[in-house]
Amino acid sequence: MGFAEQLLERAKKLNRRVVLPETEDERTLHAAARLAQEKICQVVLVGVPDQIRADAAKCGADVSGCEILSPLDEKVSAPLAEKLYQYRKEKGLTQDQAGQLIKDYLYFATLLLKEGRVDGYVAGATHTTGDNLRPSLQIIKAAPGLKTVSSFFVMIHPNPKFGDNGVMIYSDCGMVEMPTAEQLCDIALASARSWKQLVGTEPRVALLSYSTKGSAKSADTEKVLQALALIKLADSKLLVDGEMQFDAAVIPSIGERKAKGSPVAGKANVLIFPDLDAGNIGYKITERLGGAQALGPLVQGMAKPAHDLSRGCTADDIVKVAAIAAIMSV
Length: 330
Description:
By secondary structure, this protein is α/β, with parallel strands linked by helices.
């Protein structure tokens, strides 16, 4: 059984509730049908029940096993609108505005997550990352101890010698464009936490650079070293090292030669890129030339799991991300 299939099986045992608000898209409906039928998680759909059932029937998706909650149902939406007002009134939101905003499917779904009505949130098939994550950034916010919400990819490489049996985490590849040392620290800590949640083994974190252990010096390498110091202050037990070139991080013989004595060189399973350019390019090269499967982008550092899909995603992608959301809710 591959790692992605293992995630589905783990989610089944948890029986968590995941909300899918983009019910105008047939990929969401097909994903919801599979999630419910295979009992991967309990599914909550957002929208007008009759419309959802009609749309699902048209595209051949059986959503009879899903719960449907409507923002037009005052019994459900009115208490959520009041909560939204309380959370955002200091930012100038009025009660009337909250009453209107709760009709937005993304805000409605986010309030369900905030209030514990669901355990995870998955959207982004029809919305940009900015539009999709705005409600979560405003309402769910960053996890305790972190100030930075970031993203990561689970990379599943066909060669088991990399990472742990071919599984690695790459971060940040989708959100924080030019992270500061403090943000790199948060990204690394969140990525280590994501690794523990999804893989369960000990994370070995490499802070990547064009330099390994002082082979070059610049403002960029100094930023990585500052991040390393902050990480060690925050979590002295975490296996982390840097600055480190990619080959030194993942090839044992090179890691031994370039960073002798490092606790992670040559065997890193969590790779932290210095900026968004490097991260995005790195994961795509690993995927397209290295033949790896990329699961993501996935959101981390949030107080509760709210995930962002690619607008090019398939129904199968939505199923996998919903399973990940369920696992990360524990």
